[in-house]
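Q: What does the assembly look like in three dimensions?
Context provided by user:
Components: two
Sequences:
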Amino acid sequence: NAGVTQTPKFQVLKTGQSMTLQCAQDMNHEYMSWYRQDPGMGLRLIHYSVGAGITDQGEVPNGYNVSRSTTEDFPLRLLSAAPSQTSVYFCASRQRRREPPFDTEAFFGQGTRLTVV
Amino acid sequence: RKEVEQDPGPFNVPEGATVAFNCTYSNSASQSFFWYRQDCRKEPKLLMSVYSSGNEDGRFTAQLNRASQYISLLIRDSKLSDSATYLCVAVRGYQKVTFGIGTKLQVIP
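A: Here is the predicted structure of the complete assembly.
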């Protein structure tokens, strides 16, 4: 039972470098999302997708790009890393039922601890 | 005002005690609510779903008060293993999922 798989678990970047955080789920969930978690701030939504080919911005999208070419994969790209992007990143997926209650639990990946120096 | 508000704690309680957390939400259109547990440096995991007035699972009881716009989580007979951060989540529509900052619980021997 893989669930949501995130890689890498840890990463150190220099300011200005770019990288992609990988996220894959094997539950055929339509909805996938990326969060960052900072002390005292809780989980904040970066980008989300409601299906292949559809993405949208969340609360804190600046400096990040996403794409959703398949149902399974939802990579997050940091275009030019900045120290303010030092955080723990979580990918999550969930499904929406066809009948009430519509909303279901979100399944999270294990997280990526990113440090930008 | 944040859409979902929680007291960050920490709540330090002795083993065997009963502890309750409250979470308030500001948008009355929120439809579904969840409590997640997050251990230190780990991913959040679902503890309970709250769709109607409440839900109970063993030592854990969640209640929803739509009139006052709050959700509570009650933990009875606290165990050392209950030490964690408890996240309150409100869902409004398909896309709008808002997390509280979490309440930290430390159960003391």
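Follow-up: The mean pLDDT of chain A is 94.
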